[in-house]
Amino acid sequence: MTEPGSEKSRNRKPIEPGAKPGSGKVVRLSLSLDSQLDTRLREAVAASGVTMSAWVSQAIEERLDRLKADLEEDARIQQRLRELDEFFGPVPEDIAREVDEEMIRLGLMDPKDRR
Alpha-carbon distance 104 to 100, whole Å? Predict the structure, then answer.
């Protein structure tokens, strides 16, 4: 993510409330933040040279873009796994369980997600 207020984001036109050009609508929100997060946010906004609304809008926009990209990548991976299953056949259960256990041991998988 380009840190809102970073050198890279300062070179872009600030995103003002209402975010989408031409929408003509602005929504007012009330947020509750941990006091430490509030302090960090206010420091970042002060250093950025944009308004709190612009900074938060940009951060949300970037996070939503990243989430969309992650979901699209997950869909591509799932499609590739389906293609591999069609070509090679499904992974035998004993091997799948062994891989799951190793991933749990390495901290790469939550035990509740095992097959």
Answer: 6
Q: Which tokens in the block code for residue 28? A: 């007012």
- The three-class DSSP label of residue 34 is coil
Nearest residue to 16 (alpha-carbon basis) of 8, 27, 7:
27
Strands (E) in the chain, as ranges, are none
Q: At what angle do helices 35-48 and 52-88 cross, to 10 degrees?
A: 110
Question: Letter for the amino acid at 114?
Answer: R
Separate counts of helices (H) and strands (E) for the chain? 4, 0
Burial class (CB in 10 A: 0-12, 13-18, 19+), 5: buried
Per-residue pLDDT of 46-97, as tens digits, reads 999 999 999 999 999 999 999 999 999 999 999 999 999 999 998 899 999 9
Q: Report CA 76 to chain centroid distance, whole Å.
A: 17
